[in-house]
Design brief:
The structure is a single chain. The chain is of the alpha+beta class and 406 residues long. The chain folds into three domains: 58 residues, no CATH class; 169 residues, no CATH class; 80 residues, no CATH class. The protein contains nine helices and 17 strands. Strands 1-7-6-5-4-3-2 form a seven-stranded antiparallel β-sheet, with no helix packed on it. Strands 10-11-14-15-16-17 form a six-stranded mixed β-sheet. β5 and β6 form a beta hairpin. It starts with a strand and ends in a 6-residue tail after the last strand.
Length: 406
């Protein structure tokens, strides 16, 4: 597609003769929208009347005039993506981590280039491609790190108000359909007018249904928020049932990166948490690696030790996150016992059984001594070390089953 200037001679209403260096053609249509045919094929154009300028698009086969194998210019479209060859276009690169070449698309149309053209484009824009790939590697690594070290978002003991604040209902209200007036012909032709009125009535009806559904969700959200706030008020006063309800709702609202479930019970001023931890197989087994020579993004396998240590940090980060949430939500709570277990295969019976990996009793005074401003920089394994705990883990992240604390 391109903006061009042309000189046209009007032969008679609706038909024009187009003169250019490439030959003679004819065009037909109305002011501002025309179809032309000439030596280079059939084109449609939408113009700005009075300026001589039009926006053109070629139709049918032969849209690309590039000879096979002719490399494109840097940042230029080699053809086959819905625009004219040689035109500068924004590129969209979809990186894959399985070692296969990336998919290159025309960012305007979403259409993918052929493998040959994609490689030509990548190599002709090599430095920009490398920069983007390395940024993608950083993005993947940061995402994996945030999933493993979820303790970084642990609330401090004094963060109760922000923790229990109900989320706002942020779903946008459905917009009313734009007012539309019938054109002259529609007003004059009864059948067209009926169709116009029917379409307008249908749009209005759908909008009213969407609005009713939106309002119903809003009212439900506000009612749930009010019930939660009432439970939080009772929990702050020490009501054990309300306290359990609040913690259950907070835990259910957590977006765990890997499957994690928790059950709880309050006994006097102590909370007992049982956590069904994710399995080590759930965590990533590789890390991204970019080959700058071949412009290929792949996944490099992690060592067994690295996988075990990532798992160890993650399951301890779960404990830190839940401890922080519990102490922040219930200001009267004095201690929390949290025990994490995993499903392991019993080699003597062939059945799966629960095996506890750690059990920690955290007291409020020592918990409040932690510098939560620096928590993201701390290893969650080290964070739990000062507290009473039962854990049998080697320096390389191998867990052996233990008995949970009472």
């Amino acid at each position: 597609m391109a903006f061009r200037f042309q000189r046209r001679i009007r032969l008679f209403p609706g038909l024009r003769l187009n003169l250019s260096k490439s030959g003679v053609g004819v065009s037909t249509g109305v002011r501002g929208a025309r179809v032309s045919a000439g030596r280079r094929g059939i084109w449609s154009s939408v113009g700005a009347p009075g300026t001589g300028m039009s926006f053109r698009k070629k139709h049918g086969a032969g849209q690309s005039t590039r000879r096979p194998g002719t490399p494109p210019q840097t940042g230029k479209n080699p053809g086959g993506s819905g625009t004219e060859p040689g035109q500068s276009i924004p590129l969209e690169i979809e990186w894959k981590t399985d070692g296969s070449p990336p998919v290159v698309r025309n960012a305007q149309t979403g259409q993918a280039f052929s493998a040959e053209d994609a490689q030509t484009l990548l190599r002709s824009n090599r430095q920009a491609v490398i920069d983007q790939a390395l940024a993608r590697v950083d993005e993947i690594e940061q995402s994996l790190d945030s999933k493993i070290n979820i303790h970084a978002e642990t609330p401090a003991p004094g963060d109760r108000e922000s923790l229990i604040a109900p989320p706002e209902f942020d779903e946008p209200k459905p917009a009313a359909p734009n007012p539309e007036s019938p054109g002259l012909l529609t007003r004059l032709v009864p059948a067209w007018r009926r169709k116009f009125d029917d379409r307008r009535a249908e749009r209005l009806h759908r909008w009213k249904l969407d609005l009713e559904a939106w309002d119903s969700r809003r009212v439900k959200h506000e009612a749930q928020a009010a019930r939660f706030q009432a439970s939080c008020n009772r929990a702050a006063e020490g009501d054990p049932d309300a306290s359990e309800d609040v913690l259950e709702m907070l835990i259910e609202g957590l977006d765990w990166p890997y499957e994690t479930e928790a059950s709880l019970e309050i006994i006097k001023d102590e909370l007992h948490l049982e956590v069904d931890l994710p399995e080590i197989e759930d965590l990533p087994t590789g890390q991204p690696r970019f080959n700058q020579r071949d412009l290929i993004l792949s996944e490099q396998p992690l060592s067994q030790r690295a996988q075990r240590m990532n798992y160890a940090r993650h399951v301890h980060a779960i404990a830190v996150r839940l401890l922080g949430m519990s102490f922040a939500a219930l200001p009267w709570l004095q201690s929390v016992v949290i025990s994490g277990f995993s499903q392991r295969l019993d080699k003597t019976t062939g059945h799966t059984r629960d095996e506890y990996l750690y059990s920690v009793r955290a007291d409020r005074p020592r918990w409040e001594a932690i510098n939560f401003d620096k928590l993201a920089e701390l290893d969650p394994i080290d964070v739990l070390e000062p507290f009473e705990h039962n854990r049998n883990m080697t320096k390389t992240g191998i867990f052996r089953p233990i008995e949970p604390l009472d």
